[in-house]
Specification:
- The chain has about 190 residues and is an alpha+beta fold.
- It has a domain of about 90 residues: 2-Layer Sandwich (Alpha-Beta Plaits), CATH 3.30.70.
- The protein is built from five helices and nine strands.
- The strands form three sheets. Strands 4, 5, 6, 7 and 8 form a five-stranded antiparallel β-sheet that branches.
- Strand 5 and strand 6 form a beta hairpin.
- The longest helix is centred in the last third of the chain and has 10 residues.
- The chain is elongated.
- The two termini are about 15 Å apart.
């Protein structure tokens, strides 16, 4: 029933009994094989695992070998950065004494499809000239960089909707930056006869 390229073809048949007492035929679980990569592939925008498999193995159905070699990703889509759950970093600025972080995180978190909201605030010391009396001195001034990092499901909410929620909380919002696999490397294992 399985093709000669299938990773399930050599698994033994098993019979299990369900809660109603019926006997069901199936295949045994396929343990994740120990796979080591000999080289890496840099993910490009538009990559598909079947195309990458064809590029390295001349066989598009061997995409699963690449997926097995990169077990930190739960799905083939995630491996290439095409999962519907994404993480965007929204740079923000706030004119005022204290940003309303609690109100912002509450409104964004309550939106259907949003999984996590994290506020990132970094402080850098930059040299700045100031006049004190008649002298000009250089002091180290604080410069804040702030961002709201949101993990959300693209099937339920858009980046524009999240941006609108952040704006409604009183922040100016810059263009979101997507955490992506593009430009990162994945392991390509050796081809095998298995």
């Amino acid at each position: 029933m399985f093709s000669s390229f299938s990773r399930y073809r050599k698994l033994p048949d098993v019979v299990t009994t369900d809660a109603k007492g019926r006997s069901l035929a199936s295949k045994a679980l396929r343990p994740l094989p120990s796979v080591s990569g000999t080289f890496q592939h840099t993910v490009a925008d538009g990559d598909r695992l079947d195309h990458v498999a064809f590029q390295y193995y001349q066989q598009p159905t061997k995409w699963w070998r690449i997926n097995d070699a990169n077990p930190e990703f739960l799905s083939p889509q995630e491996l290439l950065g095409k999962e519907p759950v994404v993480t965007d970093r929204f740079p923000v600025t706030f004119n005022g004494p204290q940003p309303p972080w609690a109100a912002l995180t509450r409104s964004v978190t309550e939106r259907a499809g949003v999984e996590t909201v994290t506020v990132v605030e970094t402080v850098q010391l930059v040299p700045e000239s100031r006049t004190v009396g008649t002298k000009t001195v250089t002091v180290q001034a604080e410069r804040f960089t702030r961002a709201v990092v949101v993990t959300y499901n693209l099937l339920s909410v858009t980046a524009d909707a999240i941006r609108n929620l952040i704006t409604a909380a009183g922040f100016a919002v810059g263009q979101p930056e997507r955490a992506s696999r593009v430009g990162q490397q994945i392991i390509i294992p050796q081809d095998s006869v298995e």
